[in-house]
Amino acid sequence: MQKILQRLEEQRTAARLGGGQKRIDSQHAKGKLTARERVELFLDPDSFEEWDMFVEHDCTEFGMDKQKIPGDGVVTGYGTVGGRPIFVFSQDFTVFGGSLSKNHAAKICKIMDHAIKVGVPVVGLNDSGGARIQEGVDSLAGYADVFQRNVMASGVVPQISMIMGPCAGGAVYSPSMTDFIFMVRDTSYMFVTGPEVVKTVTHEEVSAEELGGAKTHTHKSGVADLAFDNDVEALFMLRRFINFLPMNNRSKPPLWPTNDPADRKDNSLDTLVPADPNKPYDMKELILKVVDDRNFFELQKDYAANIIIGFGRMQGSTVGLVANQPMVLAGCLDIDSAKKGARFVRFCDAFNIPVITFVDVPGFLPGTSQEYGGIIKHGAKLLYAYAEATIPKITVITRKAYGGAYDVMSSKHLRGDVNLAWPSAEIAVMGPKGAVEIIFRQDMKDQQKVDLRTQEYKDRFANPFVAGARGFVDDVIMPHSTRKRICRSLAMLKDKKLENPWRKHGNIPL
Ligand code: HXC
To answer: Which of 205, 231, 350, 452 could make an SS bond with 33 (beta carbons 3.0 to 4.6 A apart)?
Structure first.
């Protein structure tokens, strides 16, 4: 017996060493942790249950039969974060560059199948050279097996990807189908084709970092939600992030203790909106002053910053926040912001997270680049997402709610449950200046008449009371009472039940 136990221990030690000390040192020298160190740091201490530690590849090409490393380049299993269960896979770059073999893929598929079955989120810590070149089509098949499971898990359990090394070629499509992608600055990149191929095909010279580094994907492409400075910060923030999420599509968001009173007033909100309607103000101030303990986990903050998205809590329970940002493009909706907002609203809807929407939107961004880029279809994504959502929806209009953008931003007409407006709200087809230029064109040469007409229009429409008189806003509230009014609304909506008609699936304008 003693011998058998000893053998087990030896095999475990060999597996834990991955690709060997030299490669571990090289991983550390790059400022990266190893796959196992990452799992240990991410999960609660001593909670990791590893599976398939002894799985090896079965490739015999190119002398691979003589190079077998237990675990085959990926550490898989489950553990807990903050006491709640989570499945995790962590690719081991020290083993064949973390490349994906058939059996490596099978390990990932196994935990994904279990995660779907038991309703537990899946986190992937990606650090891989892509398809295991020696395996050829077997590796491609393995990727497709993972992709299929990404799709089956979508909307069933949250899926999160942390990119902590290379992620290239078709390999990017597994993370891209997960709900959130985070990256580590300077050590991770994602692209479909690398700098060499780009140079050959388009003659562009670009570094891997410029092409697909964390800055590119958090500022330009919007592929990644956030970037962190190093592995330790990334894993710590990932733990914080997961605390906001429910386990699956049938569970409620987790409760987080707070001493922040539900009826806390904030008098400074009464002066947040400047007297001049063309002056910007920071919508994030409102979010921070409304959520529990000023704790707002913002996503995609450097991409399409004219819309703000992220998670917070109200009376301990997770809410999704969507808000126009008057500081950027005056808060207009454009292609990028509509896509950003829509995907977030759909995530919240899939996982029973109420959405609070703060509105200050002068309309859709005009221009040829927007029209040629397909703003009609992309803008409709946000409209579709809000209209389809059956979760509790609370809307607060702080200032402008003009034109189609008024309808889109969780209006009453898209089944908004509670629609509130501040006294500074202006709900109209367009701003006074544009309106007067169109409907009083004949008076445009006479400045006195223009001023008079503008004032008339302002008095009539630049307020929340016309919408209030029709029941399109449920109440006009004092800004300082916003938190209280939202908390009460959420409590009232706690057991909301609303179902869309049966269908195989809708056809969102993709
Ligand atoms: C097998 C691989 C590998 C791969 C790296 N290695 N990538 N082994 N298959 N795809 C091995 C190397 O041989 C090396 O082994 C070790 O991993 C570390 O690699 P290095 O090159 O020394 O590391 P580094 O200099 O940091 O460069 C990392 C890298 C580079 C940029 C990822 O290795 C690279 O370009 N690899 C190939 C990437 C690629 O073209 N993959 C296929 C993409 S297409 P030793 O024994 O020396 O330590 C794809 C299609 C997916 O993935 C399609 C899905 C539908």
So the answer is: 231
